[in-house]
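Researcher: Sit down with what I've pasted below and flag anything odd:
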Amino acid sequence: MITVEEAEKIILEQATDYGAEIIPFELALGRVLAENIKADRDLPPFNRVTMDGIAIHYDAIENGISTFRIKNTQAAGDEPVNIDEHTECIEIMTGAMLPPSTDTVIRYEDLELRAGLATLVTNDIKRGQNIHYKGNDKKQDDIVAALGTLITPAIISLIASVGETELRVKKMPRVVILSSGDELVEVNQTPSQYQIRRSNCYTTKAILSKHNLDAELLHLPDDKGIIKSQLKTCLEKYDVLLLSGGVSMGKFDYIPKALEELKVATLFHKVQQRPGKPFWFGKHEKGNLVFAFPGNPVATFMCLHRYFLPWLNASLGIEKKFDLKAVLNNRVSFIYPLKYFMQVKLHYNEYCQLMASPVEGNGSGDFANLVDTDAFMELPMERNEFKKGEVFNIWPF
């Protein structure tokens, strides 16, 4: 049995680059760039007006001119219109290109407009005000989004602005989610009093969907031959197998033996943690990875957030920026020699500290309790008592 830290190290050492694919930019939200995106021209591409008002040449202010004849009106997208004299101005809208013959924009709030004339009602005018200058944000051929960037709505905006209609993004691994056990029936079936409906697989699929990973589902009955045959097919078809159940010490837990026979090497089996102690992780000789989580819903839920998602981010090149931490809001005792992933409810106190309040449940099978909690708090194995006010890592879900 290994520690959580050892398990994490072994898993992250198996981070894999699955290559790249080209997709339409509007479908790229949440994916990871596999190329640098460069500006096709300066950003902004011209001296852009940032306030509705009038455009003038500042020399007029220095010469004491305070009333201007409106020569023309220019909207955003219009070809710019020049002034011929310092006594003239162009009435201009936000987003328009600044006429080359002008260098300052005065907003409507600082003007009185009457009979085709614009008169200043303030003396607080500065040369070059209310203008977003050409190339101030990025120059042509500058990188606007770098390889390895997680594509957010802001990145989509940048990509659209430089005319990239298709993007090269990191490929997601091909993943199958396998549930196991004859005690499980489908969601639309009525279980007997000794059966339950399948839920772990749908929970796992929902979590992966939040990370743009569309996994397939498969159920394994408690039959040695069928398990081995189905696992063989999955190892030929998928990069990653996510299993739930069948990896403990039960008489019908055939999965570890079947994986061994299929040349999947055991990298570890059992982790000093609660929940999720029976967690099994292995690698096929061709590189396929197998995450075999315990069947208890909370254990599967925790292991996904603590191990699989960090592995996925590492495989996609998404760097971990920092550990999330929270302040324990109540004293806690835990007598077992295991690292405890405690379910907590999060809130901010009056000092803007993130506080974690323990929520008692009924063990690893109490998945209903997840609805009322926000994260797992990772409590170190070396201790049994944890004081109110201490700070520990959390894994939000």
Observations:
- The mean pLDDT is 93.
- The two ends are 26 Å apart (CA to CA).
- DSSP finds seven helices and 28 strands in the chain.
- Helices lie at 4-12, 59-62, 153-161, 200-209, 224-237, 255-261, 297-316.
